[in-house]
Write a structure and sequence with these properties.
The chain is mainly beta. The protein has two domains: about 120 residues, no CATH class; about 270 residues, Outer membrane phospholipase (ompla), Chain C (Beta Barrel), CATH 2.40.230. It has an 18-stranded antiparallel barrel. A two-stranded antiparallel ribbon has the order 10-11. A hairpin with a 4-residue loop joins strand 18 and strand 19. About 0% of the residues have low confidence.
Length: about 425
């Protein structure tokens, strides 16, 4: 299998090199492709009976960016095929990632942003939108879909006050079905509406924020979930809505360095709990809400650090979890076409269980990744990388660790 992987990468180099057609520097589009070999020592993310595999991955991508005076439009599509030598059947996984964004300024005081992100994937960090809360730390076989659409509007009402409403809608559709399946536990609609009032330049280079959000989680699977007492209940047992209220600030240290901090409280009401489990069930929760980030983009590289504390959905038969997620990334050019990047995320989840079976249980999930690339020429780069995942859970037979290494070529035209 190792010889096959090397042959695939060699063929990829020939194909990439044969397509080197110089394009104008200001062209509105580009296409790229990645050919990689990899080794994964626990590709099923299991506690025991671990399975490891060599394999290869082929991933083409296309992007377009249109820039006009008042409007910008960006679109990208990425297809991934990952082949596992260890499997006897269905050896290849297929993934799709489509991203769209539109930004329009009606005037100096009024702007609108619209975006949509659609994926079909198996890995948790791809299914979940961006850094932050993960509903499941486990890999899920099948064509699992997630779509997130969002619209943000900003209107400068006065010299000092800006009004910023917004709304996002997400849906999750997992292929696995049946009792306590991924579909039963994680298929859902998520609505989030918000309104921020911004005090522009409240202090020098600092905007003040006061805001409110209203979120709804609507589980929509027809499959049942099995409770610890043996009863089988509909998935909407876990439906809830939340009110968020917070204060915050955005500070600009320079044009390259900025931070944002939101601090407040979240109130969550589980709307179906009393009707299904009885009137003695505690069906509401209050917890802190924190969303903060620090971003730098300059000559020393690109750096991001963030933290979020809020309620999060889970793939366990409980209501949800109060979770804290810390995430970060750093990338820069090291020397002479050699570039490096490091990413990381840690999420600690404290489970909320109205049956009290898992009320004192929690888990921590960590992901670390490192990548090193070398520009062979302006079109082709060689790369090598490593990813480490660790789940440490109080839930029996759930913990695991996973090592992944990869090596290959990336071409951009």
């Amino acid at each position: 299998m190792k010889t096959t992987i090397i042959s695939v990468i060699g063929l990829g180099y020939v194909l990439l090199s044969s397509q080197l057609i110089a394009q104008p520097a200001d062209k509105p589009w580009n296409v790229s492709a990645t050919v990689r070999g990899f080794y994964d020592d626990n590709y099923l993310t299991r506690y025991s009976d671990r399975r490891d595999s060599y394999g290869f991955e082929i991933s083409p991508e296309a992007k377009i960016a249109i820039r006009q005076e008042m409007t910008t439009f960006d679109a990208s599509y990425r297809y991934g095929m990952r082949y596992y030598d260890d499997r006897n059947n269905n050896r290849a996984d297929h993934s799709h990632e489509l991203n769209l964004s539109l930004n329009h300024s009606f005037s100096d005081k009024c702007r609108l942003s619209i975006e949509d992100s659609f994926v079909v994937a198996q890995e948790p960090e791809v299914i979940e939108p961006g850094m932050g809360m993960l509903a499941t730390p486990l890999r899920t076989d099948g064509n699992n879909m997630r779509n997130r659409a969002a619209a943000d509007f900003a209107y400068r009402a006065t010299e000092s006050i800006s009004i910023e409403p917004g709304y996002s809608f997400s849906f999750y559709d997992y292929e696995e079905s049946g009792l306590n399946s991924r579909s039963a536990l994680l298929d859902r609609y998520e609505h989030l509406a918000y309104l921020n009032l911004r005090w522009v330049n409240m202090l020098e280079n600092t905007d003040g924020l006061i805001g409110y959000q209203f979120g709804v989680i609507d589980h929509n699977s027809n499959d049942l979930i099995l409770l610890p007492d043996g009863s089988r209940e509909p998935s909407d047992l876990r439906d809830n809505y939340s009110h968020y209220i917070y204060l915050g600030a955005e500070h600009r240290f320079s044009e390259l360095f900025r931070t944002k901090v939101l601090i407040g409280a979240q109130y969550t009401k589980y709307t179906e709990a009393n009707d299904i489990l009885g009137p003695n069930i505690d069906d509401d929760q209050i917890n802190p809400f924190v969303d903060a980030s620090l971003i730098y983009q300059g000559k020393y590289g690109e750096f991001q650090l963030g933290v979020r504390h809020a309620r999060s959905q889970t793939d366990l038969v409980i209501f949800d979890a109060e979770a804290t997620s810390v995430y970060g990334s750093f990338k820069r050019e090291i020397y002479g076409g050699i570039k490096g990047s490091i990413t990381g995320m840690y999420q600690f989840s404290d489970f909320e269980d109205p049956t009290s079976v898992m009320n004192d249980q929690s888990e921590g999930f960590m992901m670390l990744g490192a990548n090193l690339s070398y520009d062979i020429n302006k079109f082709i780069a060689a790369e090598v990388g490593y990813n480490y995942d660790l789940l440490s859970s109080d839930v029996q037979f759930r913990s695991y660790h996973r090592n992944r290494v990869y090596w290959g070529l990336r071409g951009t035209f």
